Amino acid sequence: MNKKAYFGKFGGQFVPETAMFALAELEKAYESIAKTPEFKAELDDLLKNYVGRPSPLYHAKRLSKHYGHEIYLKREDLNHTGAHKINNALAQALLAKKMGKTKIIAETGAGQHGVATATAAALLDLECDVYMGAVDIARQSLNAYRMKLLGANLISVEDGLKTLKEATTAAIQTWVNEIESTFYVIGSVVGPHPYPLIVRDFQSIIGRETKAQLKEHGVKADYIIACVGGGSNAIGIFHEFLSDESVNLIGIEAAGLGASTPYHAATLTKGREGIIHGMKTIVLQDKYGMIEEVHSISAGLDYPGIGPEHAHLHDIKRVKYEPVTDDECINALKLTTRLEGIIPAIESSHALAYLEKLCPNLKAKSVIVVNVSGRGDKDIDTIMNYEKGKIYG
């Protein structure tokens, strides 16, 4: 067993033999190219001058007054393309270019990773196919059009629930068939090794910046909260703080209509060990091991698995994972918008919603950082037409 491929008992490479060559090639290229000073300098320049990093750590004074604690927002929504996804997509696309690949493919749910990958492809002159479930294309029509405008070939996936799981499956199948020329840009800390590691490393810039910015503010974080679907924005901000046990880390899952109903995507709350998309992790499955249908207002969180590192962190109890419903999420989105003039993405609003549960139970005044992983422009139609109790996806 390749111990490097695992976080505790989670991870691995559960893929067809035909894909093992590409994974070995990727791991070798990551070590020999992405870790060089030259690659890092080129990527840092793009992150600064193209993406607009560092993203601010904003002291949300009105939210702080509302909750009675010091609330800081890590503003990934201010990145070029409107989310944290560009950090990883740009880095992987740059690696693909250095490896001599001519085409990149990606899967997307909310569309932010698809837009980020299409953006990187346009910048670096790479052919780009993006796989997206038909349901997600309908509810994220703005992002779907943005991808086409950027020159990507958007492929509608009509299987199953027509959401993120099916899009990921379709992308993996294509990648296996076109492995010589094609690079698969995975959008989250999921999939077979080395993807969870690579995406974590490329997203951990969020946590490194946050740590330095907290120091500049002269404060220390007591709590860091981030939403979790596959889990890239969360692991991105958590990673730098894992060794500091004084910082409480909280990942927020999509509970849909409620984790006690069949209509949710609360993987760690309700799932069990299984294999999905090339990795051993926690999976929402029935008693026969079949992957269960998931439901969330969020196109970016309705995934029936979770990154293997998150499964491990949950297993060792280093990170606490909590569910938040559609309704709680929308209420938090509206509150943040009205108090701070910031419209967060529906995904990020799950993390903001947890303030409502956490803050009243804190005995001492605390410093709380919430990762605002994306902006809500893409979600305006969903927010406008939101009805409590409606099933999305």
Query: CATH class of the largest domain, anyone?
Result: Alpha Beta
Strand order of the largest sheet: 3-4-14-9-10-13
Record field, number of beta strands = 14
Structural Rg: 19 Å
Low-confidence stretches: none
Average residue pLDDT: 96
Task: Give the helix level as a range of percent.
Answer: 40-55%
Beta-strand percent range: 15-25%
CATH architecture of the largest domain: 3-Layer(aba) Sandwich
Secondary-structure content class: alpha/beta
Shape: globular
Tally of contiguous helical segments: 17
The CATH topology assignment of the largest domain is: Rossmann fold
Give a quick account of the main beta sheet: strands, pairing sense, barrel closure: 6 strands, mixed
Give the termini separation.
38 Å
Number of discrete domains: 2
Account of the protein in words:
The longest helix is centred in the N-terminal third of the chain and has 18 residues, at 17-34. This protein is globular. It is of the alpha/beta class and 393 residues long. A hairpin with a 2-residue loop joins strand 11 (272-276) and strand 12 (279-283). The mean pLDDT is 96. The chain has helices at residues 17-34, 37-51, 61-67, 85-98, 112-124, 134-139, 141-149, 164-177, 195-203, 205-217, 232-238, 267-270, 308-315, 326-340, 346-353, 355-358, 380-384; strands at 6-7, 10-11, 57-59, 70-75, 103-108, 127-133, 153-157, 182-184, 223-227, 248-256, 272-276, 279-283, 319-325, 367-372. It has 17 helices and 14 strands. Helices cover 43% and strands 18% of the residues. Helix 5 packs parallel to helix 7 (141-149), helix 9 (195-203) crosses helix 11 (232-238) and helix 14 (326-340) packs across helix 15 (346-353). The protein folds into two domains: 7-47 and 85-199, Rossmann fold; 52-82 and 204-384, 3-Layer(aba) Sandwich (Rossmann fold). The protein has a six-stranded mixed beta sheet, sandwiched between helices. Strands 7-6-5-8 form a four-stranded parallel beta sheet, sandwiched between helices. A two-stranded antiparallel sheet has the order 1-2. This is Tryptophan synthase beta chain. Its cofactor is pyridoxal 5'-phosphate. Belongs to the TrpB family. It holds the Pfam family PALP. It catalyses: (1S,2R)-1-C-(indol-3-yl)glycerol 3-phosphate + L-serine = D-glyceraldehyde 3-phosphate + L-tryptophan + H2O.
